[in-house]
Amino acid sequence: MSAAFSPLEQMVVVLARDLADGELGAAGAAALVPMAAIALARELHAPNMTVGGEMFFNPEPGHLYPSMLDDRALGRCEAAETFIELFGHSHHGLDFFFHSGLQHDAYGNINLHHVGGTLHAPKMRGPGAANLSYCHTSTRFYICPTVHTARNFVEKVDFITIPGHLSGPEAKRAAGLTKEGPRFVVTPRAVMDFDPATLRMRLKSVHAGHTAEEVQRHTGFDLGIRGDVPQTPAPTEEELTVLRERVDKTGTLRI
Amino acid sequence: MERKKKPTRHSKVTSLGDAAILARNALRERPEICLGGLFKQGRPVALVRALLAAGAKDLHVYSSPGAGYDIDLMIAAGAVEQVFIPGVTLENRLCPNFRSAVESGQVTAHALDALTVVGGLMASAHGVPFQPIDALRGSDVLKHNPLIREIDCPFSGRRIHAVGPIRPRVTFLHAQEADRWGNLRYLSTMVYADQLMARASDMVIASVDRIVPDDVILDDPSRVTVPAHYIDAVVEVPYGAHPTASFPGYAMDEEHIDAYADLGDAARTGDRAGLDAYIARHVTAPTSQEDYIKAVGGADNLARLKPEARTE
């Protein structure tokens, strides 16, 4: 039995397990969970991973910071780049990247621009987003919002900032999105993946202490639940120890 | 034979007030201003405050692809007409005045992405008519982005995008050090898009935390981030990036920015008194950076931002 863990720690572990040794990837701004996942993977099984594509290589932060685009979060790093090199990385793509937004829909599209109204007469204007390319030039990306409600998981986003699977395989092909796109979604409640035939989101597993019924109730579209839903494998003793002792020394993921 | 006296090279060191007037007058010709740094780091905020105090209006604001506090303050002060910045956020919360102004239609915020902005600056810096972009697909931003066009690639025949030159009339940068000629040395790990902006703009004004002796530059030329050739004026402004960070000198003043955002949120719900008082105290009233430092609690108070900025 492993010790009690927080929802964010569960998210970090789910993501870290999917990042492979030797890969190149990064997280952007507002990226506490992805940065922890990258750091944990490097500690546990991916010592040859390159963290890059966001204006630096292989940062060694003193502790966890909420944004990767922060000199403090870089701590020491092996090399620095600029937006000039980021232009190239964006075209060449990475192996993995992470996104989350104001709204996420059934096909993994993400909205950061506006909720309600129109772009130039929005009911609520969001922050927008800087990099729209890694989601489709990279091999894959992960969706990992730290809240999961029927308000941020909607059938159709009001604006597609970051394209996921658009409206399915045909639309994706027509738009020239040739890579995998969003591989899975992890939230504080559950893991969702995408039906390979339709590319619609479906419930894959629920975290300890959560139920399929509850996850569905907090999701604004049908998660295609059929029968029993497995439980997300909890963090192991080793994962949790390394996460707390070497990655998140200040306990940011437990607040 | 009598030797002629050696002519004197002009120092580019300027006062904050003179720099602001120089910028304001240039921006009256063409309102495109560009800000260096990124989000809460390396932002030329003292120059921005001085420009606002000098009465700049109807600005079209560009930046590296992410900005927050400064663009929000410029909007709160009523100086902005259009925003050409892809991501506008305080990261831990939304920008309150940006939101209000866009939701009420006072300010136009264009839907853009990092490659459009960086590509446009690249075209301008390199002196070419456009920069091709081949990594924009599937996003609704493409339907609204005013700066790109679809073109046929002359080699592959594929449909790709092109962005024309982004040529700011004025760019403000903040560096840690410069000599009196304007050679900028960034000691921070990241230098953002500042080198590109310096080469892309008509006029470049830099603030620095300190002016260093000529020899510091001459002894280590590969350490110069932006050569003086691209710089029109340099202003020595201790804590010139505050409340954003100037690494490794001082970290971002999250407390200050949060308190400002609270006032912005109050203004959103109808109570503007606090925000107006903030602008009066920090932007309009100070006649120098010393005044500003006093207004934010004095140098002793700002010294608390130093330890956090150093990486152990």
TrEMBL record, chain A:
SUPFAM superfamilies: NagB/RpiA/CoA transferase-like
GO MF annotation: an example: CoA-transferase activity
Highest taxon of the lineage: Bacteria
SMART domains on file: CoA_trans
Organism ancestry: Bacteria, Pseudomonadati, Pseudomonadota, Alphaproteobacteria, Rhodobacterales
Protein name from the UniProt record: Glutaconate CoA-transferase subunit B
InterPro entries given in the database record: CoA_trans_fam_I, NagB/RpiA_transferase-like
Automatic annotation (TrEMBL), chain B:
Name the record gives this protein: Glutaconate CoA-transferase
Classification via InterPro entries: CoA_trans_fam_I, NagB/RpiA_transferase-like
Pfam families: CoA_trans (PF01144)
Origin species: Litorivita pollutaquae
Keywords of this entry: Transferase
GO molecular function, one term: CoA-transferase activity
Gene3D superfamilies per UniProt: Glutaconate Coenzyme A-transferase (3.40.1080.10)
